[in-house]
Amino acid sequence: xxxxxxxxxxxxxxxxxxxxxxxxxxxxxxxxxxxxxxxxxxxxxxxxxxxxxxxxxxxxxxxxxxxxxxxxxxxxxxxxxxxxxxxxxxxxxxxxxxxxxxxxxxxxxxxxxxxxxxxxxxxxxxxxxxxxxxxxxxxxxxxxxxxxxxxxxxxxxxxxxxxxxxxxxxxxxxxxxxxxxxxxxxxxxxxxxxxxxxxxxxxxxxxxxxxxxxxxxxxxxxxxxxxxxxxxxxxxxxxxxxxxxxxxxxxxxxxxxxxxxxxxxxxxxxxxxxxxxxxxxxxxxxxxxxxxxxxxxxxxxxxxxxxxxxxxxxxxxxxxxxxxxxxxxxxxxxxxxxxxxxxxxxxxxxxxxxxxxxxxxxxxxxxxxxxxxxxxxxxxxxxxxxxxxxxxxxxxxxxxxxxxxxxxxxxxxxxxxxxxxxxxxxxxxxxxxxxxxxxxxxxxxxxxxxxxxxxxxxxxxxxxxxxxxxxxxxxxxxxxxxxxxxxxxxxxxxx
Length: 495
Description:
The protein is an alpha+beta fold. The chain has helices spanning 139-155, 199-212, 237-241, 254-262, 270-278, 294-308, 312-321, 375-387, 393-399, 461-473; strands at residues 22-24, 49-51, 99-100, 114-116, 160-167, 170-180, 185-186, 193-194, 345-346, 355-356, 372-373, 403-404, 410-412, 417-419, 422-429, 432-439, 444-450. The strands form four sheets. Strands 3, 4, 5, 6, 7, 12, 13, 14, 15, 16 and 17 form an eleven-stranded antiparallel β-sheet that branches. A hairpin with a 5-residue loop joins strand 12 (403-404) and strand 13. The longest helix is centred in the N-terminal third of the chain and has 17 residues, at 139-155.
């Protein structure tokens, strides 16, 4: 799904009990750093609910100053850390999870997983990366990857995770843990998953296809396509795609969060979502700075519908999914979830207890976070997003112009971030997290999919997996975000 990232907090006590904070996690940018405004306090006695568009906290330390919560010695995983995420209920991962399955492009699985070596090892059998490249996927390196992923899985109490790393010389495709905690079903690589804010990359690509078709310009005001937007004559499509509109994030509105937590199956229209935003004043003048907000992408979804004359889902299928060869990527119109899929677990509930969020309706995220996909599709999409074969070279160049956020080595372009050299996006929705990134100089793709959004010691598990993996395979380009910080009082200050 940042400013400060909204996390569960204790609400004011009420007679007979305490309601903990709940967070609707739709992390997009920088899942592990916070974005789009601070938590909004609920009325006394009610839950403090924070929607979590993740992005960059203006007060967070530089990523280089952050000590990772897990470490990965060269030969073996370190000892698992003690404790578990608050309210997890624990049954997520065993102390020694096994790896199962590996996806071929068709999503088929092999019981033992697969890792094909690339490059050559030095005399000692170790591999090294230089010049921003990736290490060779030797047996020693793949064993270290297995150990690192298992450590994060166990330490952060993640039920299950799918990891896909591809390079010109080889690939590593693995699944660890379980896809269903109740049944104990092993996670496998061919499952469909909710991908949260990676959806933004598809919505913005849809807009950019319309720009290439001459139907809109990036510097057109949004008022030309959607009426009644505050400051709509001054806010451009470029600013919406780049998270610099200043519009209030609807996910920070207490009435919205109460509505979703009260009924996770509620159906929202895009107009209803925007109404939660538009009743608030803008946080800053258009273009003044960066603030991650789902309001921006929902507006772009309406622009796409206006310009194309189609529903957003139909347009994305015809103009993005199909041309990119993404046969298992869908934009749902309800809570339906194509089989096979993993069950997802969240603590984004009024009392902080863990629940199964698999079938919650994602309409509250719409153009900002509703898409469902799988490993093989996202591996293809990561490269497409960074290289831009669906767009003209000029438009792709505009997409990749990353402007600064508040964190060093992290920038945001048009619906895409640059994180220590990795280009892509992450996502979080109650029950699920995802990471889809590409390292251009190494032609390497990394996709991580997991079936929980429960943070560990203030960090998103998708960030922990991404960091652990890239420390091993691309030590010159380690994916990371500063840990989230949060307060109970709202603040308009953003990066």
